[in-house]
Structures are given as C-alpha cells and as structure tokens.
Amino acid sequence: VTARLLPLALLALLAAVLLVPGAQSRGTSNSVTFTDATGEDPAAADITKVTVSNDDVGNVTFKVAIAGKPPLSSMGVDIFIDTDNNALTGPNFRGAGTEVFMRLATQNGNGTFVWNGTQLAPKTLDSYSANYADGVATFSVNTRDLGNQRALRFTVETLTIVPVPPGKTDFAPDSATSGYSYDVNGQNTMTAGVLRVAPKPAKANHLLVVSLPLTDNTTNAPLASGRVICQAKIGIKSVGAGSTLGGGIATCRFNIPKSALGKRIKGSLAVDYKGTVIRRTFASAIR
Ligand SMILES: [Ca+2]
Ligand SMILES: [Ca+2]
C-alpha cells in the first residue's frame, strides 16, 4: 500500500493551500467535534466536520461528514492514526506519525493497514468496522487495536477520483503539521458478566459459591489478575469466606453455619483491578 498510497498523499499534500485552525468542543459523552473549513478545493469531496467519541469499553468512533453527500464510489475516506502520539514513529502524514491507517472506499485499498516498522501493511483488525451513509463515513475501532493508548493524534482526508491522477484531496485539519488530538476517556479496565449464586437458596452447613465472570478490556480476554473482596453477613454476624480468581472468574466461597438455618445471608463480591472496582451484591434465604 505504501507504494500506491503515500505518494498520492504526498502529492495531494502539496496541493493543500488553506491553513484554517479547526474549532473544537467537548461533549459529556467524550464526544469531540472538529470543524473543518469548507470549499478548499471545489473538485474534492469536502470534509465539513469530524466527530470522535468513545464508549466505556474503549470503542472509538470517527464520523467524517462530507458536504453534498457524494457517493462513496467517487472517492475514498482515509484516517491516519498516530496511536502513540509520536510523530517520529510511523510514516509522518501531516503531523500524524501513523501506526494505523484506515481507508473506506469501494475500490483501491479499502480496509486497515498497520505500520510494521517498514511499511503500512494490510492487516485485519477484529474490532474494526466502517460504513458510509447519508454523507457520513463512520469508522469504529477498539483501543486494543490501537496499542491501548489514550492520547491519539490523527489526520483525515478524502481522495476524490478524477480523470487525471493523483485525484483531488481535502484534508482535515487543514494544518499540514499538527493533526487532531483526541484523548480516550472513561474507559473501564474490565467488564463484568452475570453474577451467579449457588446453590440458591443457600443451604445451612454448606458452602455458598458466588461467582462473577470478568473480561479484561485491554486484551478482550478473561481477567487474569485482580483482588477479589468477599463480604457477607447473616444478621449482624460476618461470614467467613475464601476468594479466588481463575479463568476470568472471581469466586467467593462463604461457609454457611448449621445454626443459620432459616435465616438470611446478604453480601457482596467485589473485584479491584487497576484502580477500577466492580461490586455486585446478593441476598438469599438459608434453607
Ligand atoms: Ca473541508
Ligand atoms: Ca507514531
């Protein structure tokens, strides 16, 4: 891809003449809108704004709005992401030292490309999706496919197909050297599944096993480490417990005494991992 793509980009770079600072506003859902100038090149698909947001499991979404809603068959929409926020690593595209390149097009290089130290090589990213509808190109990718970095820098371009190559380009931002900055915020380090309590109801003179499956959002794999905190009371008396974490499942084993027959147990299982605490409560009759 480098042979075809980057010379095009560099040629197009020379055609960029306008330098208009982009406006920026931050919403409550960590949504940031970058406003691009309009009408830079009448022959190029015109980016009007780029909106970036992320959810609490690290899915980052880029929405690129294009004036006049041209068909995707007439252009490509490209995002160059500097995942380590270092212009000196990866090919420097208008200020973004690019580790991940995403192109949405009906032809010529649709897909994702990752810097391998030599070139931006085609590579499938499991979390990636992209589509184009109603003049908006939407790209979604998880931070685990972006090196798990929080501070991203990126540049967007449209490349419009014209009779004489290399095509016409609109860049966002218009600055040839800065890129846009975006910080991934509010990402939880783990995600919990459904709490299980067994047996239910609890039995006197038996173990009560309370377990919670957890996924590490950084790797999307079962949580491998973390502190499990088990607490329960029968009436006002604390109940002894053992805790384990294995195979991504946090487990508390409570010893229900024989004398608790007919009473009620109330408690919680909590997991502390990298500063995030997930806590689930439970209650059961004792039979
Ligand atoms: Ca524009
Ligand atoms: Ca870089």
What are its keywords?
about 290 residues; mainly beta; 7-stranded antiparallel sheet; 6-stranded antiparallel sheet; 1 helix; about 5% helix; about 50% strand
3D architecture notes:
The structure is a single chain. This protein has one helix spanning 2-15; strands spanning 23-26, 32-35, 47-54, 59-66, 75-82, 92-93, 96-97, 100-105, 111-115, 120-122, 129-133, 136-142, 151-160, 168-172, 180-183, 190-192, 196-198, 207-216, 221-222, 227-234, 237-238, 241-246, 249-255, 264-273, 276-285. Helices cover 5% and strands 49% of the residues. The longest helix is centred in the first third of the chain and has 14 residues, at 2-15. β18 (207-216) and β19 form a beta hairpin. It is mainly β. The strands form 5 sheets. Strands 5, 8, 9, 10, 13, 14 and 15 form a 7-stranded antiparallel β-sheet that branches. The chain has a 6-stranded antiparallel β-sheet with strand order 1-2-3-4-12-11, with no helix packed on it. The structure holds calcium ion (CA) (2 copies). Residues 36-38, 40, 46-47, 170 line the site of one calcium ion.
Q: What Rg do the Cα atoms give?
A: 26 Å
**Count of individual helical segments:** 1
N- to C-terminal distance: 67 Å
Helix residue percentage: under 10%
The small molecules bound here are: calcium ion
What is the SS-derived class? Answer: mainly beta
Order of helices and strands: HEEEEEEEEEEEEEEEEEEEEEEEEE
What is the arithmetic mean of pLDDT?
89
- What is the number of E strands? 25
Poorly predicted spans: 6-28
The biggest beta sheet reads: 7 strands, antiparallel
Our estimate of the beta-strand percent is: over 45%
> What best-fitting shape do the alpha-carbon axes yield?
elongated
